[in-house]
Amino acid sequence: MNISQLQQEILRMKKEQDVCILAHSYVAREISEIADYTGDSYGLSVEASKVTQRTVLMCGVRFMAETCKILSPEKRVLLSNPIAGCPMAEQMDKDMIEAVKAQYPDYTLMAYVNTTAALKTIADVCVTSSSAVKIAKALDNDKILFIPDCNLGAFVAKQVPDKTVKLLQGGCPIHAAVRPADVDAAKALHPEALVLVHPECVPGVTEKADYVGSTTGIMAYAKQSDAKEFIIGTEISIAEHLQYDCPDKMFYPLTKHLICPNMKSTTLVDVYRVLRGEFGEEILLDDETIRLARRCIDNMIALGG
Ligand code: 13P
Ligand code: SF4
User: Residue 2 — pLDDT band, cuts 50, 70, 90?
Assistant: First the structure.
């Protein structure tokens, strides 16, 4: 079967089986073409809370499939490729954060969505890269304990200077590896280009950017901008998607190392095999985890909307 025949077969099976396919912005184009919705973590969370189909198939990483299950516990939620994790989500566990929380009893525990379901059970509010600043501003507490991404946390702290934001040393190994010198080198090669970066990059990088935002935010900014050239400081797929969507503009990855092997692990064949019942993993969480973890995600949707 070629790609288009595979896509037709997936579309037929998903309708027949009443499946909603949700895809993160980073996944391959041939997957987003057959998805019901493609977007950033915030958009995926909102869509997950509204799904009408009986089954949700998440093409992305594990923490998003778990978030989907927490928001739609009555649905069957499948992760397309079980090896698709996120190293940042595994950096801090519940016991460790409970101990830190005890040291800061009057702080609101704000957890990036890139965390495990177990860790979400003790968080007060969840955030995504596109909603974090808005939620931090809306919070009725001026003390925030931000986990696990110290770079996103530092970005939030800078946008909300009237609040105290405590950070722990976690982060995305892919985005945090980008150096300020990489921005200088990319700008030297493309002096007319605007620099658009994800807030998971270190402060020295975000400070040099023309725009800082989520994957959806970066794509929207580039599409509506009058500029013709852009340096894209997030996973390399976003530059590729933008190049297809806007063939009259030029998109350059900030570095060739911005590749997330976890996001790349899901393929169109995986999706096909999941629908044939041969692959994938059903996300199973106990009722207590779902009940406790839901609180911080509901708070995110209420404050971030
Ligand atoms: P978004 O908030 O843009 O979905 O980013 C999530 C992520 O994992 C970035 O690496
Ligand atoms: Fe996790 Fe980083 Fe990959 Fe995003 S890019 S899924 S934060 S490892």
Answer: very high
State whether 296 and 154 are in the same domain: yes
The count of structural domains within the chain is 3
Q: Which of 18, 64, 14, 63 is nearest to 39 (CA)?
A: 64
Q: Does 34 share its domain with 66? A: yes
Residue nearest to atom 2 of ligand 2 (CA): 172
Q: Quick one: 214 and 66 in the same domain?
A: no
Domain that holds residue 102: 88-173+289-302
Query: What is the chain's mean pLDDT, rounded?
Result: 97
pLDDT tens digits along 95-111: 999 999 999 999 999 99
Say if ligand 2 is within 6 A of residue 236 CB.
Answer: no
Q: Please work out whether the CB of residue 237 comes within 6 Å of at least one atom of ligand 1.
A: no
Share of residues in the chain with pLDDT > 70 (%)? 100
Q: Are strands 55-59 and 281-282 parallel, antiparallel or unpaired?
A: unpaired
Q: CA–CA separation, 157 vs 163, rounded Å?
A: 7
Query: Among 88, 150, 265, 266, which is best to mutate for testing ligand 2, by the most ligand atoms less than 8 A from CB?
Result: 88
